[in-house]
Amino acid sequence: MDDSFDDDCFAIRQAARYVSQIYDRHLANVGLTITQFSLLSRLERLGPMTMKQLAEIMHMQRTTLVRTIQRLRRNGLLVSSAPAVDARALSVSLTSEGAARLEAGWTYWRAAQAEVEHHFGGQRARALRGELFAVTSQV
């Protein structure tokens, strides 16, 4: 019996890779990946956070998050600092350059969003988004 078409994980990951490529192509115009853009936008909206908080919000493994943050720090888009009381609680925040790059990226993010919704349908995309966010809120 061939159950390969019943593989939820494969289907979700395949779709995620396809959609990520669309966003990455558009955001390349401002030198960001969709992961970097998403991280910057969360920091802008929620303010400085510890690595642990950011990993939880982004549903990312800390090692993957560290690699992403290191690249953004090297490019001057993020800064990190540790409070004197607990050096392990490294906090990450946007720089003014990070905020400017994020602002410039919104135009390209909107273009990517429009392309995905054009191919998939706006109503279907909204419904899918809701379902996918429901999955991660239950984990």
Structural notes for this entry:
The protein is 68% helix and 7% strand. It is mainly alpha-helical and 139 residues long. It has one domain (21-137): Winged helix-like DNA-binding domain superfamily/Winged helix DNA-binding domain (Arc Repressor Mutant, subunit A), CATH 1.10.10. A 3-stranded antiparallel sheet has the order 1-3-2. 16% of the residues are buried.
Structure in a nutshell:
By secondary structure, the protein is mainly alpha-helical. The chain is 68% helix and 7% strand.
SSE series? HHEHHEEHH
Give the name of the CATH architecture.
Orthogonal Bundle
Strand portion, in percent?
Answer: 5-15%
Low-confidence parts, pLDDT < 50 over ≥5 residues? Answer: none
Reported by name, the CATH topology is Arc Repressor Mutant, subunit A
Largest sheet: 3 strands, antiparallel
Distance between termini? 30 Å
- Spell out the CATH superfamily: Winged helix-like DNA-binding domain superfamily/Winged helix DNA-binding domain
